Amino acid sequence: MTNTANTMTGPGTDDTTTIAPGVDSEVGPLRSVLLHRPGGELTRLTPRNNDQLLFDSIPWVERAQQEHDAFAEVLASRGVEVLLLADVLGESLADPRAHAAGVHAAVDERRLGSELADALRSHLSGLGAGALRETLMRGMTFEELPASEGASLVRKMHHAHDFVVDPLPNLLFTRDSSAWIADRVAISSLAMPARSRETALLDLAYAYHPRFRGASRAYGAHSAPVEGGDVLLLAPGVLAVGVGERTTAAGAESLARSVFADGIAHTVLAVPIAQNRATMHLDTVCTMIGPDAVVMYPLARDSLVAYTMRPGDDVAADGARELRVDGPEPFLDAAATAMGIDRLRVIDTGLDPVTAEREQWDDGNNTLALAPGVVVGYERNTQTNARLEEAGIEVLAIAGSELGSGRGGPRCMSCPIARGPLPSAS
Ligand SMILES: NC(=[NH2+])NCCC[C@H](N)C(=O)O
After folding, report:
1. How far is the CA of 281 from the centre of ligand 1 (A)?
2. ipTM of the assembly?
3. Which pTM value belongs to this model?
4. Ligand 1 atom closest to the CA of 169, numbered from 1
5. CA–CA dist 64, 98 (Å, integer)
6. Do residues 240 and 286 both lie within one domain?
7. How many Å apart are CA 81 and CA 77, to the nearest integer?
8. What is its subcellular localisation (predicted)?
9. What is the CATH number of the domain that holds 336?
10. What CATH number should be reported for the domain holding residue 111?
11. Which of 188, 215, 216, 335 has a CA-to-CA distance to 350 between 20 and 30 Å?
């Protein structure tokens, strides 16, 4: 197996053939994707901090890396350009403005007090781009921060293994921290404290990496919470946004206002989902496998509803169009209407409730489409995968025993940067 660490694979790595970013569906041929190969940040997980850091167990890091390399290789073997976040971040941090922004984001003065904050700031400012990148991802313990002149009560009262900069093990789930909608990138405002600093890293990567410097933004990183795992691009101009544990109603509403104002969508469906760990994002219960087809957790099929947001006819005092909100109505009906199709097909996994629940937990419904009818899924979800195959879907099965310990599947671990257009309907 080729090790894809610190490399960019697939076509388009050479400047003359750079693939222009832009994504307007879930299933158009995948051309370029941002992944994060898990690294030192996973070695920070312990039984004492894993819940807070949003992992359900302690992954075996080397095996997680092998599984991830195999995932990247499946994508590359299908002609997808794989960009690795560590590379993008490292290259961005070479710009002094990005370096300063990275340092700024890592120093939490409110928690550290001014003395220690100053010491940390000056230490980080002296690091080269590569070392700063590692610290930003892996975090730093009190014992790793070199001693400084001034006395700090905070340092004295903390344990040597406590974090002065928190690690970011959930960088693995690149789906959530940013999302492309048409030719704009939305940097997420992440809801959980364990992930909030990811926003700053993605923000600086997109701002300073030569590949993305000109990219327009959608939404605002500091607006109400919206996470990419909740955002499905049902069809060009049509978004479904899960509202639950992560994305709030305010987040869905302001995302809708922003994509309407930018003219990149005409309908946004807000879909309430149960506020619990098993369904933390909409993509844990439903992902698209074809232009008019989804795989869905059977229990969600008849219970999901949607509120439909569209730009209204009236114009508000600030010149923006008023929002029109309709519903709720059954999700499948609202989606079909918005997509302009007769019906949104659900591939019926026909699973008994216990198997369905087990495979939903293990991200059986969290597939990543490489093209219509071709998806990547975890091999462990044997029953879901078998049903998908019976329905004519090609399932590229990958191992995920370790990767899955953070509760995320192939869709969660990928942020599509470019997809080709959907094949025109026959
Ligand atoms: N798009 C997704 N379903 N992402 C899964 C993210 C899992 C991650 N541990 C979290 O809790 O945030």
Report:
1. 7
2. 0.98
3. 0.94
4. 9
5. 29
6. yes
7. 9
8. Cytoplasm
9. 3.75.10.10
10. 1.10.3930.10
11. 335
Contact (Cβ atoms closer than 8 angstroms) between residue 37 and residue 5: yes
Q: What total number of domains does the chain contain?
A: 2
Rounded CA-CA distance 185/136 in Å is: 22
CA distance 180 to 194: 23
Q: What is the pLDDT of residues 274-288, one digit of tens each?
A: 888 888 999 999 999
DSSP lists the bridge partners of residue 220 as none
pLDDT given for residue 230 in this prediction: 98
Residues 159, 239 within the same domain: no
Atom of ligand 1 nearest to the CA of 277: 11
Helices (H) and strands (E) in the chain, counts: 13, 19
Exposure b/e, 41-79, CB count within 10 A at least 16 = b: bbebbeeebbeebbbeeebebeebbbbbbbbbbbbbeee
Active site residues: 412
Residue type for position 104: H
Q: Are residues 298 and 354 in the same domain?
A: yes
> Are residues 350 and 401 part of one domain?
yes
Which one of 168, 170, 275 would you pick to mutate in the ligand 1 pocket, going by the greatest count of ligand atoms within 8 A of its CB?
Answer: 170
The residue range of the domain holding 179 is 21-79+171-202+214-419
Beta bridge partners of 396: 376
**Beta strands 238-243 and 267-272, pairing class:** parallel
The residue ranges of DSSP E strands in 182-304, in sequence order, are 184-187, 216-218, 231-235, 238-243, 267-272, 286-290, 293-296
Q: b or e along 281-318 (b: 16 or more beta carbons within 10 Å of the residue's beta carbon)?
A: bbbbbbbbbbbbbbbbbbebbeebbbbbbbbeeeeeee
Give per-residue pLDDT as tens, 402-425.
999 999 999 999 999 999 999 876
Ligand 1 atom 5: residue of nearest CA: 408
Tokens of 284: 């844990």
149 and 296 co-located in one domain: no
Domain limit, last residue, from 134, 164, 194 = 164
CA distances from 405 to 38, 48, 62, 126 (A): 12, 15, 14, 35
